């Protein structure tokens, strides 16, 4: 009994020191959202459990190695115990209660992060290999996610190809983005600044580079930016032509696969493409004219360029006028 009391006393300071060490190591990044505050509370309880379990294992082990080590000249056998019912019941009930407590904490934390705000505004998120596109309530799209501080946003997300996962480390929460299905994620930014959304699901060759800027600004600054973007977007729609095509290309993340300077990427470069003879995977060639480029945007697998895989480029929801503008932009890339 004396040894149990000593070990129990030693576990307390070891647990405290381990917890303080974990807390001081700053394992988590900045708390950038209201959801991060809730998740970090759960993380704090996790660290307490980790520190305690570490101490419960290491302290008796170290104590036993020192106190119950075999002395010089001692060749006797150790005490043989058949079992201890009280000990077995104790180490069954206590872990059961701890697991139940943490299950409750996990369910509570999940519920709090998903609590809806009736005044939340909606941003539609489209993921594809290997870029993000964000469509705002004002009608325009962008490859940057702009969020007003202290206002909940509901992200409605879908994928054009494979499974992706939306994750901003400073916001803590993340959500898979699935093809053919809309998933949702709620965020309430509480820290001004610039962050990055990353794909947290291995999604192909350029998965590591599937990032997009996330900028949290004051509501007034967001409103000014959104008004500017909406005005510029509507003007481009009315104008059409290469400038509009360049804007549509930027909004849909085409630069993630197609370069405009001749650099080889996962998709053919657009530099000098228009009017050139394009070799196809079936051994034929085709002239890159209006008809070919329009067909390739509408049905990317209709004619596969030699040296590039099929089923990589997704189908985009673009109007004929938007496609015409993109083709006219490609035509300018001599």
Quick structural overview:
Helix content is 42%, strand content 18%. The protein contains seven helices and twelve strands.
What does this structure look like?
The chain has 334 residues and is an alpha+beta fold. Helix content is 42%, strand content 18%. It is built from seven helices and twelve strands. It has helices at 2-24, 34-67, 85-113, 219-239, 241-251, 290-298, 320-331, and strands at 121-128, 131-135, 141-142, 145-148, 153-159, 164-167, 174-177, 183-187, 193-199, 211-217, 277-279, 285-287. Strands 3-2-1-5-8 form a five-stranded mixed beta sheet, with no helix packed on it. It is elongated and about 90 Å long. The termini are far apart. The relative contact order is 0.10. The mean pLDDT is 87.
Entry keywords:
single chain, 12 strands, 5-stranded mixed β-sheet, 42% helix, 334 residues, alpha+beta
The radius of gyration computed from the alpha-carbon positions, rounded to a whole number of angstroms, is 29 Å
Strand order of the largest sheet: 3-2-1-5-8
Characterize the quaternary organization of these chains: single chain
Summed up, the helix count is 7
Largest sheet: 5 strands, mixed
User: What is the residue-averaged pLDDT?
Assistant: 87
Helical coverage, percent range: 40-55%
Beta strand count: 12
Distance between the termini: 86 Å
Low-confidence runs of at least 5 consecutive residues: none
| Beta content | 15-25%
Structural shape: elongated
The sequence of SSEs as H and E is: HHHEEEEEEEEEEHHEEHH
